[in-house]
Amino acid sequence: MPETADLDLPAFYAAHLSPGMIDLSTSSPHPLALRVLNSDDISGAFLTPQTSLPLRLAIASRYTTLGADDILLCSGAGEALAAIAYATLTRGDIVAASPSTYPSLCNAARHLGASIVEPAPGTRATLALLTNPDVPFGDIRDTAAFITDALSSGALPLVDE
């Protein structure tokens, strides 16, 4: 992994995103047009979660077990993370998340009655979040190790970025 001072995010994306992989996040250094989903009539304008049936159908067509009703559209990471909190957490749950986690996830978790703790080896949590690269220093974490650790401790792993 590169040192923080040496991190070239566009080069990192180029080296680690698989060919054919689509990253529609606003933080992607090279965002792709929606036409990669084989539909020139899909608008990339602001969308509410259940609008744009053509876009939800196009996304679902890339999977074998999903339909349009399984797709939730979000206009940004903050909205998506809050939606995940509301979909996965209940009162008494624990979220293992670093201080750099988007406030929307932490606020939604607290609203639901969940607790936020800093990640540590062996932490029992319902949801474990990794921000990669980490904020504010851009440290790159080992995503595979994080997912393995989260699953082995019973947590649902969530990787932001």
Structure explained in plain terms:
The structure is a single chain. This protein has five helices and four strands. It is of the alpha/beta class and 161 residues long. The chain has a four-stranded parallel beta sheet, with helices on both faces. About 4% of the residues have low confidence.
Short characterization:
This protein is of the alpha/beta class and 161 residues long.
The strand order across the widest sheet is 2-1-3-4
Q: Provide the succession of SSEs.
A: HHHEHEEHE
Estimated structural class: alpha/beta
Any idea what the radius of gyration is? 17 Å
Summarize the main sheet.
4 strands, parallel
Please give the structural blueprint.
Blueprint: H1 9-16, H2 53-60, H3 77-88, E1 94-96, H4 103-111, E2 115-117, E3 127-131, H5 143-152, E4 156-160
Distinctive features:
161 residues; alpha/beta; 5 helices; 29% helix; 10% strand
